[in-house]
Model the fold of this input.
Amino acid sequence: MEAEDPLVDLADIHLPGPVSFWPLAPGWWVLAAVLVIVLILAGIWYVRRWQRLRRLGVVLQELQSVYQTFTGQADPSPTQNTAGLQFLHGCNEILKRVALIHFPHDEVASLNGTQWLRFLDRTGGGQEFTVGDAKVLGDGSYRREFSGNARLIHDAAARWIRLRYQTVSVSGSSQPDYHSGEQTA
Done:
């Protein structure tokens, strides 16, 4: 008796079709969702950063304008003294507006004189306002004569303002839009 090959009648092996790209596995959907969320958050961060830097530029430009108005007075007459007092008043006004935006209204609005200078030093991390040349800002509105180094006062105010706009709020709340109305700080 002849041995029959039992495998002769079997059909050839059928390979499965190629794995299709679609539909995606659940892991890819999760990865896509995470990527979209990261892109949205990065976009929000970038827009807020751009707005904060734009606001900083506007405030520093206003401070520079106040300083240039003072330095444009070459006449050492009473006009120079008036320009110096206006410079002090302008610096104080800009600093106060920025402080009102970045700190609670109740904490900042009523500050003046030495309390105002201490607040600026406490929030600025130095002693430029209570000990340095910028201490004239404490009684700037009540001074009869301008005395002080305007460049150092300007620089101290600019440093304090830059620090405010570089500090990101911990609560994550967005900054109010202070461009409405006449406030530009």
